[in-house]
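Homework help board

Subject: predicted structure for assignment chain

Our instructor gave us this sequence and asked us to write out the predicted structure in token form, then describe one feature. I got the tokens but I'm not sure how to describe them. Can anyone check?
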Amino acid sequence: MSGWNEKAIPDQSGRVAVVTGANSGIGYVTARELARRGARVLLACRSEARGAGAGERLVAEVPGAAVQFARLDLGDLSSVREFAAAYPYDRLDLLINNAGVMALPYGTTADGFETQFGTNHLGHFALTGLLLPALLETPAARVVTVSSTVHALANIDIDDLNSERRYRRWVAYARSKTANLLFVHELARRLAAHGSDVVAAAAHPGYAATNLQTAGPKMAGRRVAERFMRVGNRFFAQSADAGALPTLYAATAPDVPPDSFTGPSLAGWRGSPAPSWRAPWTRDDRAAPLLWGASEELTGVAYDALKA
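My token output:
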């Protein structure tokens, strides 16, 4: 992995990719670089204006890129179902579960779930399950879910998944990122048991300068915290281009192991992609199926194709 960068991405001609949250940050860079290598990319974004604008900007940067926008609100399961039902291709080579929210004031999704758990985990759980038939029909498909080193702050609480007892914004974010890794762990196990060659892997960007850091403080009206995050992004964070490299590696590099976790090489902060440390509880073979079962019940999306 040493020195791996976007120039090492293999040819993606003939492949189809879905990238959630592709209108900005590492999602946009991921979509752009996949399109640059020849993939047909579906930009799955909540805002029609921002999603369409991202598509126009991408084509300006990569003339001839095959990109298309489709609305997807991961905080609304009806939107997830509409997106999956309208999916226009008979194959899906790469599903990049990138979109997310971070450290927001307490709120709920359209379906009543705590916003961070509902968006970061349940939305992507439902999306992956609904697109699973296309993934299973595509040779060597991959599902890459973007987590965070912040997962190390907290394990999930299977008895309080929606943080109803007590809400702390950073703990709730960490739990949602732990849920991402437990999802990848259990999905990889179920795919292997099914005999599928679909690879489920995880990645994280380290500290990358995106809109994610400032959205929470801005929403809460915490101006000092918002300024602090902007200063951090300017002087300490790596660029979104660099932050997207672990995702791109997990999506395209040869021989990426199932249930792997790729991040920046320098202390998980910045640098070229490398295997990343993860908390032991993210490979808990008791918690993972419990979260899976709860997620099926909460979303109403059952992974029937992977059942014994």
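Reply (TA_rk): Your tokens look well-formed. For the description, you could write something like this. The chain is about 40% helix and 15% strand. That's the kind of observation they're looking for.
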